[in-house]
Amino acid sequence: MYSENDLQSAVSAGAISHEAAESFRAHAVGMRSAPVADEEHFRLITGFNDIFVTIAAVLLLVAAAGIGHAIGPGIPGVLVAGAAWGLAEFFTRKRRMALPSIVLLLAFVGGVAAIPVHFLAETDTNLSDQTGAIIGAGIGLLAALAAYIHWRRFMVPITVAAGAAGVAATVIALVLSAWMAATGRTDADPIILPLVFTCGLAVFAFAMRWDMTDPARETRRSDVAFWLHLLAAPMIAHPLFNWLGVSEGENIGAVSAIGVLAIYIGMGLVALAVDRRALLVSALAYVLIALSLLFRQFGAVELNVALTGLVIGSALLALSAFWSPIRIALLTQLPGSLRSRLPGGANMPATKAFA
Q1: Which of 209-218, 277-286, 287-296 is the least confident region?
Q2: How far apart are CA 208 and CA 186, in angstroms?
């Protein structure tokens, strides 16, 4: 069985022409009766060898961290980052193995970020909250820089998301530090969620920028956008549901539950429009909590979990089964200039409202 990634690689290597690849995609679309973009392909594993190598790499990285811990502060991060980079030279750059590449990227960025963290933890330095926020901003920037260097060498799609996470952490920490200095307060609760939500929207916009450059989802840019959407989704969902009181898991009334469902439906419409399911997955836990407590309030104490699973599971399965026709119906209501930049929307006729 050949994947979309194999097809892209064959075109890049000149084994088949772009026109032949397009003909093959059209044939596959006709057989599945669904647009190729709607399948939301991304490469994770190509065989059990990916899992085998990943397990071995994790064992080696854990061993490197343990040895470094016995040597001194900051050394675990140095050894982990160095080992991850060395392994990536073979398994990422030469073998192009997806799952090991993801793990090694995370290990490299995490190892670099852990160097100052472990050093500060071992030296037992007492820092003010404002100083701690500034140091946190520096660590986030260091992680983003490590991700950028790794991207320039290996170009693993998840690397851009890792760098975006580092930049977001840097921005949040800097704003927190400035807020503490201006107000003299150390309690960050009033602004932390708005900051996370704003950064989530920024990451989502960044993901859409990558997505719109490859609406047919034929290149690495689509994989980069996938990981960015996966990062942005919880950053957007968590603050929204926290403001509704769902995160605490207590005292959720009918109004809050309806609000949760309304937000989830809104996220579903956005997910359909951009053809990314990450928003639906990231918000799923909050919806399950809200519906479960709502069923309990209406007297279904013993069956609240079962009823919640039945309702949400049935809804998601129905959405998955009819994703393409529902999405087509939604896209036909969008302006042509926007629709043409979304996956599968370029060849759709405009509706009378936007013609």
Answers
A1: 287-296
A2: 35
